[in-house]
Amino acid sequence: KSTFTCDGQEKVGGFTIKCHKVDGHGTITVKEAIAESCNDYMMHIGKLLGAKKFVQYQERFGFGTKTGIDLPNETRGLVYGTDMGSSTLATNSFGQNFTVNMIQMVSGFSSLINGGYYYEPRVVKQVVTSDNQLVKNYSKTLVKQTITKETSDYIKECLRSVVTDG
């Protein structure tokens, strides 16, 4: 429940990167930062994590790698490595300057709110004949746990505050 003071901008790597609230949000918690979409706070978190840990989190949530979904032509997306500069880390920390495909985003986000469980994404749940006879059933395949249940519960609380308080 640490706080950070958003003054509306950060000077990073020779650049001034602004928060959308030009005058700043003032002193806020991470929950408030998520609710208010505070870029300044996210840059602060990115700096605390560092590039190595940030990239590890991206990998944990499946960014930069194919998900293996049962669809053709999936892309990996474009993410930076641990050698990214400080301004790249700053903008990456609030979701800019890298790309993910929609399946990566949905899969990663789903693991945030379902207790931290990352499942293999699927388009097809089952195959049935025209007279509704089951031909094949595809069960859920747990790939990994991205975060703890406690962290997932807190993220859900923060996301709820986006709607109720943001």
Automatic annotation (TrEMBL):
EC numbers, comma separated: 2.4.1.129
Primary subcellular site in the record, as a coarse category: membrane
Signal peptide range: none
Source organism (scientific name): human gut metagenome
Keywords: Glycosyltransferase, Membrane, Transferase
The UniProt record lists the keyword Membrane: yes
Location(s) in or outside the cell: Membrane
Name of this protein: Protein containing Penicillin-binding protein, transpeptidase domain protein
Residues annotated as domain Penicillin-binding protein transpeptidase: 2-166
GO annotations of cellular component type: plasma membrane
GO molecular function: glycosyltransferase activity; penicillin binding
GO annotation terms (biological process): cell wall organization
Coiled coil: none
Keyword S-adenosyl-L-methionine: no
